[in-house]
Design a protein that fits this description.
A hairpin with a 3-residue loop joins strand 1 (about 5-20) and strand 2 (about 25-40). The model has no long low-confidence stretch (mean pLDDT about 95). The protein contains twelve helices and eleven strands. By secondary structure, the protein is α+β, with helices and mostly antiparallel strands. The chain starts with a strand and ends with a strand. Bound molecules: adenosine-5'-diphosphate and the ligand N[C@@H](CCOP(=O)(O)O)C(=O)O. Pfam families: GHMP_kinases_N (PF00288).
């Protein structure tokens, strides 16, 4: 009997909110907002077709080397000496792009899983995470989207050089039908690079995300960060990070403890010029917004994350009101949308059908 041939693959990947205040490049949580990918394998010689619905449908590239999901899948296949088979791909994406809700992380996770299933690679989740880390460059969003829950992670080895080398490559190099031998592609230097723990999170907590209409690319938001920090600022974040992770697990979360623990000196200050109104938004307090635990930028922004245990919509409206009174780069008031989401335990899930001859 010949090896089973995959025929259909269905993948679901949650969005994420990362950093969560002091946990820059460390903390990430998967959210109840899911990217869905449905792939049908086509006969050899067919051309891959991508149908994309959902957020930013008019801007997402639909060619294999330019689309993040298929380009990721081709890279993973090529790293294992294979070419991604032709696919009919239906992508449904409600995760706003360029908003700090991990859309790129979820797309990378989906692409890695797609290659693993379509090319029968047999990769473990840990090895899939290694590749997600190399592509994304930081662990917080992809760890949460792949594994689910409220996650804390560190990198056991640097993937910086491989990350830069990959992104300096033209994607057509590994998206061709004759990809280069995997020795010529950047590979994760060792296995099990993304060391992580899933942290308990109080079930009373909801993630209120306030999503402005403008985008902020993670690449730009990372480019404005300093190369080094003072000891005082590092200690400021380390102290709060350690307190925050435990404080969020309490069955009765304390805003008095959490609000201060969600302060940050590593990323938000340096990015605030890219998010009009942010200082006023981050100055909202539990006293002004009963039910609020803490408030911060979600991921690289510009979405604002308010962790809360009550009054979710009214907390969202307070942020919307500040943005409505702030001027965007186009000179108009900043419109935004409030979503009340849950931190979900499930990470990426997938199923594959086979044709056994
Ligand atoms: N589902 C998707 N399909 C294809 N490309 C995607 C998808 N999600 C994100 N991307 C790509 O990732 C980019 C956004 O990534 P990034 O700047 O990191 O913002 P985010 O905070 O949303 O992750 C989009 O402009 C798009 O090029
Ligand atoms: N730690 C990263 C998080 C990026 O998250 P995303 O949702 O914007 O992809 C950063 O802040 O750069």
């Amino acid at each position: 009997m010949s090896a089973p041939t995959p025929t259909h693959i269905k993948i679901t990947v949650p969005a994420s909110t990362s950093n969560i205040g002091p946990g820059f490049d460390v903390l990430g949580a998967s959210l109840s907002l899911y990217l869905s990918v449905s792939a049908t394998l086509l006969p050899a010689g067919s051309a891959t077709a991508i149908v994309y619905t959902g957020n930013n449908a008019h801007t997402v590239p639909l060619t294999v080397p330019q689309n993040l999901i298929t380009a990721t899948a081709c890279y993973i296949a090529a790293c294992h000496g294979k070419a991604l088979p032709p696919l009919e791909l239906h992508i449904d994406n409600p995760i706003p792009l360029g908003r700090g809700l991990g859309s790129s992380g979820s797309a990378v996770v989906a692409g890695v899983i797609l290659a693993n299933e379509a090319c029968l690679l047999g990769l473990s989740k840990e090895r899939m995470l290694d590749f997600c880390l190399l592509i994304e460059g930081h662990p917080d969003n992809v760890t949460a989207s792949l594994l689910g829950g409220f996650c804390s992670s560190y990198l056991s080895a640097s993937i910086h050089d491989e990350h830069v080398a990959l992104h300096n490559l033209d994607a057509t190099v590994y998206c061709s039908n004759n990809p280069p031998p995997n020795g010529r592609l950047p590979l994760p230097p060792v296995e099990n690079i993304g060391r992580h723990v899933r942290l308990p999170l109080s079930p009373a907590i909801r993630a209120v995300v306030i999503i402005p209409k403008f985008e902020l690319s993670t690449k730009l938001a990372r480019s404005v960060l300093p190369a080094s920090y003072s000891r005082a600022d590092v200690i400021f974040n380390l102290q709060r990070l350690s307190v925050l992770t435990l404080a969020l697990s309490s069955p009765e979360p304390s805003s008095d403890l959490i609000y201060g623990a969600m302060q940050d000196r590593v990323h938000q200050h340096y990015r605030q010029h890219l998010v009009p109104g942010l200082p006023q938004i981050l100055a909202l307090t539990p006293e002004k917004c009963p039910g609020l635990l803490g408030i911060c930028v979600s991921g690289a922004g510009p979405t604002v994350l308010a962790l809360a245990v009550a009054n979710f919509e009214s907390i969202g409206r307070e942020v919307q009101h500040i943005w409505a009174s702030s001027m965007g780069s186009d000179g108009s008031a900043i419109e935004s949308e409030v979503r009340v989401l849950e931190v979900v335990d499930d990470g990426a899930t997938w199923s594959t059908s086979y044709n056994v001859e």
